[in-house]
Amino acid sequence: MFIFSTEVNHTVSLKDLRILFLYEFKLGHSAAMASRNIISVFGEGSVSERTIRWWFEKFRSGDLSLKNEPRGRPRSVLNEDELRAMVEANPKTAIRGLAADLGVSATTISRHLAAIGKVKKLDKWVTPGDG
């Protein structure tokens, strides 16, 4: 994957950017200064200060590897068996009510309802084929 700057002649790979982040970090520059330095060479849009701050935090913690570990979504604390039982006990329960009862967001409830095969049909949560 390449990041393209506004200058067509200047492109830099993500691996190269990470090397530059480590270089700037080792020089003792701030994330803001590193951002200005990299942008002055590779152009606007080549990197964000926020990204550099993330990498600098990683380096400060002692991890100098240039691998970008997948951050992904945090593991859900929602028990799908509990959700299934609640929906089957009261199929007309609204997503917001389930979310409030289980202490998670409505988006989390929607995602897990889909994962357990529940769909809304005539104002009830059903498994397709149940009618």
UniProtKB/TrEMBL annotation:
GO cellular component: condensed chromosome; nucleus; site of double-strand break
A Pfam family this chain is assigned to: HTH_48
GO MF entry, a single one: single-stranded DNA binding
Coiled-coil regions listed: none
Domain of life: Eukaryota
One record GO biological process: double-strand break repair via nonhomologous end joining
Domain Mos1 transposase HTH intervals: 16-63
PANTHER family (UniProt xref): HISTONE-LYSINE N-METHYLTRANSFERASE SETMAR, MARINER MOS1 TRANSPOSASE-LIKE PROTEIN
UniProt name for this protein: Mos1 transposase HTH domain-containing protein
